[in-house]
Amino acid sequence: MLQRDYVLEIVGQFVDGVSVALRRAALGEKIGLVETEQQIGDLLELEPQTALALAPDSLVTMMLLSGMGDSVAEYVGYALDRLARLYETAGDEDTAGLRRLQAKAVGESFGCDPSTPPSELAGLDAEVFQTL
Questions:
Q1: CA distance to 14, 23, 72, 90, per residue, from 42 (Å)
Q2: Which of 43, 37, 5, 36 lies closest to 21 in space, CA to CA?
Q3: Pick from 72, 64, 66: which is nearest to 9 by CA?
Q4: Residue 21 is inside which H or E element, if any?
Q5: Which one of 1, 2, 70, 76 is separated from 97 by 20 to 30 angstroms, measured CA to CA?
């Protein structure tokens, strides 16, 4: 029960934080990209610079080792997928490609579709990403 409550709490914090960050990034504010990556790192309880520099399979391994991968995978995959779109829009093809591969690896490993927003982020997705 305590672990479930903990997961619900950190997922709620992630949804709030990533919503603000992705909106900023979609408006062209580079800090929004950094903040989104920070939110992913916080959710995974890893340093964002370390977590998001990992090869896709290594990121999945870290998620598995954390014991929370199944609980947060759809959120991580979604955020990585949307970051890929935003980096592509900003002209950073290398980072966009890495984020896309990371999102794909998370989706394949945990059986979720990064292109489909979690229910808590569906409104944000409709608002921000329908045109990207």
A1: 8, 18, 11, 24
A2: 36
A3: 72
A4: helix 2-26
A5: 70
The owner of tokens 């934080």 is 17
Distance, first Cα to last Cα, the chain? 39
| Measured distance CA(108)–CA(73) in Å, rounded | 10
Residue type for position 72: V
Q: Sign of torsion, CA 68 69 70 75? A: positive
- Predicted confidence at residue 7, as pLDDT, reads 87
Residue range 24-63, pLDDT digits in tens? 999 999 999 999 999 999 999 999 999 899 999 999 999 9
| 52 phi, psi to nearest 5 deg | -85, 0
Q: How far apart are CA 76 and CA 72, in angstroms?
A: 6
Q: Which residues contact 6 (CB under 8 A, 6 or more apart)?
A: none
- Do the beta carbons of residue 80 and residue 35 sit within 8 Å? no
pLDDT in tens, 73-131: 999 999 999 999 999 999 999 999 999 999 999 999 999 999 999 999 999 999 999 87
